[in-house]
Structure formats: C-alpha cells, structure tokens
Amino acid sequence: MIRYSGSNSDRAFDGNSGNRSACKSGYRQAALYALVAAATLGLLAGCGSGLVPGGSSNNNLSPQQRQYVATADQYKEAVAEKVMQSNPGRASRELQPMLRSVVVVSFTIDRDGRVLHSSVYRTNGDDEVEAAAIGSLRRAAPLPAPPKTLLDHAGRVDLMESWLFNTDGRFQLRSLASGQ
User: Each residue of 11-64: pLDDT tens digit?
Assistant: First the structure.
C-alpha cells in the first residue's frame, strides 16, 4: 500500500500493511543516516564522500565500528546492484553534470531481503522521480539477504540510498556512482 499526504516526508510504502514497531537499533540507524547524509553532502559538493574503509572519515572509529561501516557499505552496494539490474532501461551507469533530481529513500529490509517499508526521506518535490525511485526498489525485491551483523534485534536493517536522476528520467544509485 502506498499512502500520500500533504508533505513529501509523509510519503510511505508499507509492505506489511500495518504500522511497524517504533523500536529500532538506535546506533545502527544513526550510523546509516550519518553515512547517507555525509555521502549526499559529498555528492552535492562535487567530491567523494570519503567514507571508504580506512578513509579519513573513519580515523576516530574503533576497529569494530570500522568493520560495521565496511560491511554496511558492501551490503548497500549489493542492494544497489540488484536495483540497477532489476530496472533495465530506467537505470544508467552515466551521470550528467547537472542532475534533474536527487531522491533519498529510507527503507527497511528483513533478514530474508524483503522490503518491509520504504519512504521518501528527502527530495526536491518532483513527484515523478519520487515514484520512480520507490517503484525501482519494489521491482528489485526481494533484495539480497543482509549480513547478520547488520540486523537489529528484530532481524531488520534500516538503510538509506540516494537515487540520482538525469534529465531523461534515468537514474544511478549513489552507492555505485563515481565522482562527477
């Protein structure tokens, strides 16, 4: 079911047709939100995010935290590859210098790779590409099963990904995009 209300932040897809428990692993969710925010800011600034294992952004992390970041990045790349492969003709490996839109989608995946919930987290208000981003994620389901180290106590993982749209409506995913 997809439900829409007045603001972009209220757009949601709930694969369970019910409300999801508000109980989340705070550390994992905060870490993933921070990663996506930093990557998006890096993209918008025209440079790489620096969030690669061993990169300068990881200098203050413990070895366990660095491993978590590396595992999360690898899993996001696997999910992004599945989305790209599941959307031939809509996905593109090439980005234009000036993008039409950047849509950040927040989504929850269970231990089997099912998308339980997805919603537009940030957008410029382009309804067409918002629907394309959510639709491309749904077409890719089921996604690869997440590593056990990423699962919260309920057996779920919360991710965020940025869909980068060219003017022709084709997209690239930030996890796979090289610097412009």
Answer: 444 444 443 333 334 445 555 555 555 555 454 444 333 333 334 456 788 888
Rounded distance between C-alpha atoms, residue 49 and residue 26, angstroms: 23
Cα-trace Rg, the chain: 16
**DSSP secondary structure, 157-169, as one string:** EEEEEEEEE-TTS
Q: Which of 158, 118, 121, 122 is nearest to 134 (CA)?
A: 118
Among candidate residues 119, 103, 104, the one with its CA nearest the CA of residue 20: 119
Q: What CATH number has the domain bearing residue 91?
A: 3.30.1150.10
In Å, how far are 6, 34, 41, 92 from 163, measured between CA atoms?
22, 17, 14, 11
Backbone angles phi, psi at 36, to 5 degrees: -65, -40
Burial class (CB within 10 angstroms; exposed 0-12, middle 13-18, buried 19+) of 89? exposed
Which residues make beta-bridge pairs with 171? 91, 165
Amino acid at 150: L
pLDDT tens per residue across span 119-138:
999 999 999 999 999 999 99
pTM here is: 0.66
Task: Give me the number of domains the chain comprises.
Answer: 1
Give the structural domain span for 44.
25-173
